[in-house]
């Protein structure tokens, strides 16, 4: 069964520092990958979707890359702000899971002012 | 604005009671999903429906039931057979199986 690991589980940085969040899959045969943001007590907000034919996606200060050969994705957040404090989850569609989304447990980010 | 509405935000269940969580979407999406989120764990799929009047079990369907009588609605019932129902429940929808999923704001279920 597909396992999704996010490292680190928690991260605290001073404002202005760049953030690097990692996501890895046991099955590298991934179709597409989605990064989400979750604020406390709230649902998930989609940040970026990397399609199967793409290697990265960018939106403002966010950049996500996908390396299918190693089964890894990285989310970069440039020049972090206190408003970036949240939990970030990755999820992928895999053939081994009938193309249903497999989620990681998330990385909880705190940006200190 | 289009979106997904989950209600209630908080729900309490008594021993032996069934409770129903509501999920409504006005995005005209065909597929809808129910997930359970526990602290420190990723989301786990309970049930999903790709079309009206059809649904499939996810990874942890035992103790839960659903219906899909209308495209806009996908209610989840947590039955008394679910012995550990305390969790955060999230509903999602998408145009199709591999398209981006959009989520509601969740329902937190607790035991009285």
Please explain how this structure is put together.
The complex is a heterodimer of chains A (113) and B (112). Helix content of chain A is 0%, strand content 58%. Chain A has strands at 4-7, 10-14, 19-25, 30-38, 44-50, 56-59, 62-67, 72-77, 86-94, 101-103, 107-112. Chain A is globular, with a radius of gyration of 13 Å. The termini of chain A are far apart. Chain B is mainly beta and 112 residues long. Chain B has strands at residues 4-7, 10-13, 19-25, 31-37, 44-51, 54-57, 64-66, 76-78, 87-94, 102-103, 107-111. In chain B, the strands form 2 sheets. In chain B, strands 2, 4, 5, 6, 9, 10 and 11 form a 7-stranded mixed β-sheet that branches. Chain B has a 4-stranded antiparallel β-sheet with strand order 1-3-8-7, with no helix packed on it. Chain B is globular and about 35 Å long. The model of chain B has no long low-confidence stretch (mean pLDDT 93). Chains A and B meet through strand 4, strand 5, strand 9 and strand 10 of A and strand 5 and strand 10 of B.
Question: Low-confidence parts of chain B, pLDDT < 50 over ≥5 residues?
Answer: none
Gross morphology of chain B: globular
Number of strands of chain A: 11
Give the helix level of chain B as a range of percent: under 10%
Structural class of chain A: mainly beta
Instruction: Compute the number of strand runs of chain B.
Output: 11
| Overall form of chain A | globular
SSE ordering of chain A? EEEEEEEEEEE
List the secondary-structure elements of chain B in sequence, H or E.
EEEEEEEEEEE
Strand percentage of chain B, roughly?
A: over 45%
Mind describing the biggest β-sheet of chain A?
Answer: 6 strands, mixed
Low-confidence stretches of chain A: none
Which structural category fits the helices and strands of chain B? mainly beta
Write down the overall mean pLDDT of chain A.
92
Average pLDDT of chain B works out at 93
Q: What is the radius of gyration of chain B?
A: 13 Å
Q: Report how far the terminal alpha carbons of chain B are from each other.
A: 36 Å
- The CA-CA distance between the termini of chain A, in Å, is 41 Å
Total of DSSP H or I helical runs spanning 4+ residues of chain B: 0
Task: State the oligomer.
Answer: heterodimer
């Amino acid at each position: 069964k597909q396992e999704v690991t996010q490292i680190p589980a928690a991260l605290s940085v001073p404002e202005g520092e760049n953030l690097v969040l990692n996501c890895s899959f046991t099955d590298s045969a991934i179709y597409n990958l989605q990064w989400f943001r979750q604020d406390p007590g709230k649902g998930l907000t989609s940040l970026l979707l990397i399609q199967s034919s793409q290697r990265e996606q960018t939106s403002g200060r966010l950049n996500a890359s996908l390396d299918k050969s190693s089964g890894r994705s990285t989310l970069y957040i440039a020049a972090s702000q206190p408003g970036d404090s949240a939990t970030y989850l990755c999820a992928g569609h895999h053939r081994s899971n009938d193309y249903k989304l497999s989620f990681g447990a998330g990385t909880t980010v705190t940006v200190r002012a | 604005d289009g979106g997904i509405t989950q209600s209630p935000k908080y729900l309490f269940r008594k021993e032996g009671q069934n409770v129903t969580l509501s999920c409504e979407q006005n995005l005209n999406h065909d597929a809808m999903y129910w997930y359970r989120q526990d602290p420190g764990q990723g989301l786990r799929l309970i049930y999903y429906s790709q079309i009206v009047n059809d649904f499939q079990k996810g990874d942890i369907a035992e103790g839960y039931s659903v219906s899909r009588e209308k495209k806009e609605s996908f209610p989840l019932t947590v039955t008394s057979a679910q012995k550990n129902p305390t969790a955060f429940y999230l509903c999602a929808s998408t145009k199709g199986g591999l398209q981006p999923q959009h989520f509601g704001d969740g329902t937190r279920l607790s035991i009285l």
